[in-house]
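Hi everyone,

Forwarding the result from last night's run.
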Amino acid sequence: MIPAITAVRMSGARNRADLPLLVLGPSLGTSATTLWTACATRLTEAFDVLAWDLPGHGHNRSVPEEPFTMAELAQGVLRVVDDILEQRGEVGDSFFYAGDSVGGAVGLQLLLDSPERIDAAALLCTGARIGTPDLWAGRIGQVSVSGTPVMVAGSAERWFGPDFLDREPARGSALLVALQETDDDGYVQVCGALAGFDVRDRLAEIGAPVLAVAGEVDVATPPDGLREIADGVKDGRFVELPGVAHLAPAEAPDEVAALLRSHFLGEAPLPVPPSEVVEDMTVAEVRAAGLAVRREVLGDAHVDRATDSATDLTRDFQDFITQYAWGGVWTRPGLDRRSRSMVTLTALVARGHHEELAMHVRAALRNGLTVEEIKEVLLQTAIYCGVPDANTAFRVAQQVLADEGLL
């Protein structure tokens, strides 16, 4: 059964047909307005922004009597988008799409079922499978017995990153009120659609450009699931937002808006001033953040060896690297780690630092680069750094990838 979907115009009542159409999808238990408004205000000058509400959520008080699948939910979304496209005089045209959580799952379904309709997609805090059937069965049981208010306390913990409710109490409260006011049956129906959703084995079918955005501290849809999407589709890119949990458009509206404009329009990402990165952080906090990133990128074994082998002569140098290279640069949000790995590989080849190249080939794999992408980076260095250096770099990379069982 195809459910009724309610459109929410975020660009106001004016006809914005002169701008590309951007469709925004919500998370379970939220409304389009509470989740996307802060971000959408940063997008309306560049897009005609249309959001939509799930059955029983926000402005959509319609709840079907029969269960629906994710594919049917996606068809419902496409119907309402087609109505807007008709008003714009663009019947059957394509559009940009961005969705959070179940909204991202709908985006994946649209990319699979109607690939010609999506120019590019941004999928936030989601997965090719979200949770497990048992998890959703438990959630359905809870809400069926006690209603959506029973979900508020747990969602307050899962939805938001550290201190968000203290920083943005009005925005956080509005989201939790929207959850409490969600129709019980509508919530349950969406849980049922999520329980049957699993497109992990179909990601390779997706050809449109996909930006996969993860929240660093998202426990509902952890970053690995977004990496899986970025790696699985034909043209994917992964970005992780520091300190963000499950509702990225509400938690980090500036960063999400900049990412969407960059992904859809090719705009250069806005640089982040250094003061915004280390502001209010002590030296110890910068060092701790650097050590955490160093372990994530290089692996515990490498960092432990470097730490354990430090002597009175080298210990301060190891601390210097951790604090300034990893805490001061690798933690900056201006580039995702994939991009930083590409820059680092190029710099090591250019300077002939082949003794560190193997380490950073492994780091690039940990940061989500594919073997094909590493090959392309090294081919690029052959032109701009020199064929002899690239020849050595290929030999080093060949050995690393063979050791990792990738060749």
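The radius of gyration is 23 Å.

Cheers,
N.
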